[in-house]
Amino acid sequence: MQGPDRPIPTRVELLTPKGVDRQYAERQVRNFTKKRVRMDDHDFRIGTLEQGNPDQKRRYKLRNFYAALQRELLHHENWDGTPRT
């Protein structure tokens, strides 16, 4: 298994949303992936995404960023963190 602090390799450059710590986001994605949580699932939520919440747009972008990172991670590694051959 790869270390939780190891950077996630990407095939294309992913722009990190404003105000987001990339290292923390990658650690979160690795932890969720280890638990086999699909971040591209419409039921996956980060905090509260209630209508009218002023933070809703930022959290939606963060969810999409996490899903993109997970997609890249699963391209290079299996769900358990072992490298793909």
Structure overview:
This protein is mainly alpha-helical and 85 residues long. The protein has one domain. Helix content is 40%, strand content 0%. It is built from 2 helices and no strands. Helix 1 (22-34) packs across helix 2. It is globular, with a radius of gyration of 13 Å. The two termini are 14 Å apart. The mean pLDDT is 86.
Strand segment tally = 0
State the share of residues found in helices, binned by percent.
Answer: 40-55%
Order of helices and strands: HH
Global structural class: mainly alpha
Looking at the chains present, what oligomeric state does this protein adopt? single chain
Question: How far is it from the N-terminal to the C-terminal residue, by CA?
Answer: 14 Å
Q: Work out the radius of gyration.
A: 13 Å
- Give the count of helical stretches: 2
Describe how the helices and strands are arranged.
Blueprint: H1 22-34, H2 56-76
Helix pairs in contact: 1-2
